[in-house]
Please model this.
Amino acid sequence: MTNIAEIFTYPFMQRALISGIFLAALLACLGIFVVLRRMAFFGDGIAHASLAGIALALLAGTNPLPIAIAYAIVIAVGIYLLEKKTSLSSDTIIGIFFTASMALGVVIITLQSGYQPELISFLFGNILSISGAELPLIVSGVVILLLFLLIFFKPLVQIAFDKDMAYINGVNVTFLDLAQYITLSVAVVLGVKILGIILVSALIIIPPATAKLLAGSFKGMMIISVLISELTILLGIIVSYVYDLPTGATIVLVGTAIFIFSLILSKIKK
Model:
């Protein structure tokens, strides 16, 4: 039987645990606002759109994360501007950017010869493959985004519940809306390394949705969401390593199991 304590003596597991702890907290906090503002499709669209940035970086032979982050920010700003300047719905604009970027990514991939293992890890996620060079980038990015959430927490909460009232109260809604789009896009790309393009939105949605079933207040929802997100990452890493399963998919399934258990528990309590 595998000794759980010994698992985290390996450097690659330590990098996975550290990055997982930081990203779980960030995605859980952002996920609260995503759930309240019904922005789930935005996160999913940004994740898929990042394929073009990742493919460009691999074609150029550079670290994919910085290029993918820069590309995601451009897409987020483009979506925001088109929402404000046109009569098109948010879902329509996101869908256009999402599909166009995916198509561009596929075209760029075909320009590269041979098997691309790093591209596969970005598609399906592999937290165990995080390198020593990527870890500082992920941690520093998470810290910066968490600081943004901490500094602007109250106005962001006001916008999430009532944007018009927040504007009346003097909140700079335009700036914070755009900043939140950029923050979410960067967080999604950072999370892609853990869960992959296909699954990353799950960690943004499942913990907050689970917390909503259990919490009686916004503060409680935030705390429970972070705790569930951390537990999901930890159990997912352990289960995937012990049973030799795909890490990203295992993390999502663990989170889904916790959600189902919480749903049953909330029904029993009622």
